[in-house]
Amino acid sequence: MAVIFIAIGMLLTGIDIHGQFGILYPAFHVEGAVGKFELSESIRLYTTENILGHEVRVDYLPDFIGCLLILIGVCMLVKYNRQFLFSIPFILATAVLSVLLRVSGFIEQGPELVIWILSCYFLQIACELIMEYLVIYCTAGATDALVNQATNTRMLFGWWITVLCRVYMAFLTFVGHFGVKRWYQVVLGLATLFFLYHLITTKKYVGLSKPLKIGERRERAKKEKL
To answer: How sure is the predictor about 225, in pLDDT bands with cuts at 50, 70 and 90?
Structure first.
């Protein structure tokens, strides 16, 4: 069941489908300098329009709930692989930042709002990817039975495709290229379903072999390529 919780959680954190909540942010006043630096008009526009918007956006697949499910799954699996403990700070940080980003327009004004939004946006992406990296590799380490190693390799391959898509999508969102972003969303959706399918199939191998550390797993992958 723990792997199922993690799989559902990663579906929620990995795919974002936003809708309008009907609550408007206060009018943004972001002109001016932050310290000695004057923010360009394009940066101010990209940040307030493309990342935050003028209304509160609801994620129909909420990251906060996804993080909660991943945390439950991790706590259930930590007895099989102690390295799961390293992921917990990033799970909590991702959950908090996903909420902070959406309330940013209510708690800050002035040019500092731009810095606040950018910080929350990119920190959330970084924490989310690190969180998933640790969880997915620890899961592979806890299910490293010989018969399951090929499945784990396919799972990790699919997850890395989602990482590339999300990195590109983050910058496309920032600059407002939403048309191009939709193509990456399609690839992201397919890659997510691919790696989650293989993730779920690993659940019957949990604890059947000695846990493999992340570094050992990556070292073995390098040797396999050679």
So the answer is: low
Q: What is the pLDDT of residues 165-206, one digit of tens each?
A: 999 988 888 887 878 888 989 999 999 999 999 999 998 888
Environment class of 29 (CB within 10 Å of its CB; exposed 0-12, middle 13-18, buried 19+): exposed
> Helix 112-142 to helix 2-14 angle, to the nearest 10 degrees?
150
Binning pLDDT at 50, 70 and 90, where does residue 56 land?
A: confident
DSSP string, 31-77: -SEETTEEPPHHHHHIIIIIII-SEEEEESS-HHHHHHHHHHHHHHH
Residue-level pLDDT at 199: 92
Q: What is the DSSP letter of 19?
A: E
| 20, 55 Cβ separation under 8 angstroms | yes
* Greater model confidence, 14 or 68: 68
Radius of gyration over every alpha carbon of the chain, rounded to an integer in angstroms: 19
Extended beta strands in the chain, E state: 18-24, 33-34, 37-38, 55-59
Q: What Å distances lie between residue 210 and 26, 125, 145, 197, 202, CA to CA?
A: 55, 32, 8, 23, 15
> What distance lies between CA 209 and its chain's CA centroid?
28
Q: What is the dihedral of CA 166, 94, 74, 224, to 10 degrees?
A: 30
Lookup: tokens for 78: 């930590």
Torsion-angle region of residue 53: left (phi > 0), alpha (psi -120 to 50) or beta? left
Question: 3-state DSSP call for residue 24?
Answer: strand
Residues 173, 136, 139: CA angle, nearest 5 degrees: 165
